């Protein structure tokens, strides 16, 4: 990605944050000359498939090492995330407020659920990660702030809007998922991506809004079907239990626990483990697993409940900024002196 692309990508993300800040009482946004315009949805067409019945849930796409590397190369070439208080908009202030809350936990006062399963130096590692992440933002912080902010953003179905954003974020950079959400907001009545909007929208219009995301056709189908199921089965209310969430199209354990923990605020929810958290936890030798779900179960065996929301943010942020798939920046890592893999990773792992 060249410098021109970086500038355009940064501008779009700034436009999104400016609009979000304005909705929370900040200064009116100053749109750039190529800001996303509002285009009304086409009238929904009935029986688009030519038959009845809901579409089958597609098989989950597997994230390959090559995809991880391409995603991280784009992250590395994108504009650097500002540190705390570098910008004055209310959305960034909300992001930094949440970072202060999540990364200021007295780790020494916590006890693991199982002493025998906990790493010997976990408290020292978490403390150092908190110090680093308190001063160094990552894109996961903006996505987290977006999900939390929906509760006070005036949307009619904040849990559903959060669910849509989480589905878009799968195997996709956070800022790209947020831009797709902005496009959906631009197309929706009153900027409200709610159950009724998705239920009534034609599938090809949803695809058009989210086409910048990986697997956008599949994600659009999942979002459309989620809207139908939640409206018809759950009376437009997103279920808060993980088992019901995981029955929805496109919702696996990570998305279910992300919605449950962040959108619903259930601190004792399952730990959110994505490819970054999975990679970092294995490099720290906190587990020896091949898949993220195995890592989640291993971490839940000892991680204190008070760390179930902050720990993924710590690990994911480190994975996005420092502990990348290929050639991690061990010389810049705040926990390199405590990491058994430091200086030993020269190929994808």
UniProtKB/TrEMBL annotation:
Residues 1-95 are annotated as: Disordered. The keyword Coiled coil does not apply. The keyword Lyase applies. GO terms for cellular component: nucleus. Its cofactor is [4Fe-4S] cluster. GO terms for molecular function: 4 iron, 4 sulfur cluster binding; DNA-(apurinic or apyrimidinic site) endonuclease activity; lyase activity; metal ion binding; oxidized pyrimidine nucleobase lesion DNA N-glycosylase activity. Signal peptide: none annotated. InterPro entries: DNA_glycosylase (IPR011257), Endonuclease3_FeS-loop_motif (IPR003651), Endouclease-III_FeS-bd_BS (IPR004035), HhH-GPD_domain (IPR003265), HhH_base_excis_C (IPR023170). Keywords: DNA damage, DNA repair, Glycosidase, Hydrolase, Iron, Iron-sulfur, Lyase, Metal-binding. It holds the Pfam family HhH-GPD. GO terms for biological process: base-excision repair, AP site formation; nucleotide-excision repair. Residues 168-321 form the HhH-GPD domain. SUPFAM superfamilies: DNA-glycosylase (SSF48150). Residues 67-76 have a biased composition (Acidic residues). PANTHER family: ENDONUCLEASE III-LIKE PROTEIN 1 (PTHR43286). Belongs to the Nth/MutY family. This is HhH-GPD domain-containing protein. It comes from Vitrella brassicaformis (strain CCMP3155).
